[in-house]
Amino acid sequence: MSSLQSLNLVCLSFIVVFSVMSVESRLFPTKQLDQAIIKIITVGNNGDYYTIQSAIDSVPSWSNKWTRIHVKGGSYREKVVIPHDKPYIVLEGDGCMNTTILWNDCDDIEEPTIKVLAQNFVAKSISFKNTIYEENPDHPKGVAALIAGDMSAFYDCRFYGMQDTLYDKEGRHYFKSCYIEGATDFIFGNGRSIYEDCSINVTAGNIRAGFITAQSRSTPSELTGFVFKNCIVNGTGETFLGRPWRRYSRVMFYKSYLSEVVIREGWYAWDFAGDEGTILYAEFNCTGIGSETAGRVKWEKVVSQKDADQLADISFIDQEGWLLNHP
């Protein structure tokens, strides 16, 4: 594929994204909700519940009113599921360095520490950790969080793991000022997500090379992709920015700081070596030693400022105003 054809493909992809999103906003307008928290539940010593799951279970099914679950400082060793019938939950800790949910399932990406299936979920100031690698280094694969509920947002949260840390499975998601740690494919899935002002900490150490992303967009008509906006990438060892889990994988690093951990090639074709034309990987106005593009793979896409700004705009995930409806 020629460079001109590649650029046309990128531009066409952006046009499809925004035209279809406009249709979505007309067909499925966001219901204007009362942002007030109707009910507050506390978890921890002298709280309403001692486990997070029991607090979640107490929320009425299919409620359209927000419930705030305040999790007091401490480490909570339990698996947590926000089921489909529990939308409008705010899960808030006493600070991401003080409140942590931990579990140690491994080798199954569908068994994370926390699984979010419901729409309109918000997490604030809390950490999610899979401890399997710390406990048994022979099992690096352990998911800290699986996010499959549409219109989910995370603020000042931390995600810890080694491989497959954050399964951004599906739906529209917003991550703001979060910390995400891992070595291999530690942000993966087919979400339509913006990561803004986040810290991406690579813990590749002495392994050959890590991979930050493994995005799994599988058809050109899908509106999915990962955008890293004003993020910081640092850590130990070496890493690629990403590799494609599916043929039409789409990732962009936008105005982000890339430290020396990012290797000169930048991206890895994985199972699509020699057939990279459908992969949409791009960087725009990034800084840092790792942002030098002289040695980048030839199939990395070059995007215009207009297209980059559009993809990095909040409208990529939210044209209806669902983020404004979150408390």
TrEMBL record:
Domain Pectinesterase catalytic: 44-318
Biological-process GO terms, alphabetical: cell wall modification; pectin catabolic process
Keyword Signal set for record: yes
Reactions listed under catalytic activity: [(1->4)-alpha-D-galacturonosyl methyl ester](n) + n H2O = [(1->4)-alpha-D-galacturonosyl](n) + n methanol + n H(+)
Active site: D185
Enzyme superclass (EC): hydrolase
GO terms assigned for molecular function: pectinesterase activity
InterPro entries in alphabetical order: Pectin_lyas_fold, Pectin_lyase_fold/virulence, Pectinesterase_Asp_AS, Pectinesterase_cat, Pectinesterase_Tyr_AS
Signal peptide: 1-25
Pathway, per record: Glycan metabolism; pectin degradation; 2-dehydro-3-deoxy-D-gluconate from pectin: step 1/5
UniProt keyword Signal present: yes
Its EC number(s): 3.1.1.11
Source species, domain of life: Eukaryota
Function description: Acts in the modification of cell walls via demethylesterification of cell wall pectin.
Family: Belongs to the pectinesterase family.
PANTHER family with a match to the protein in the record: ACYL-COA THIOESTER HYDROLASE YBHC-RELATED, PECTINESTERASE
Protein name (database record): Pectinesterase
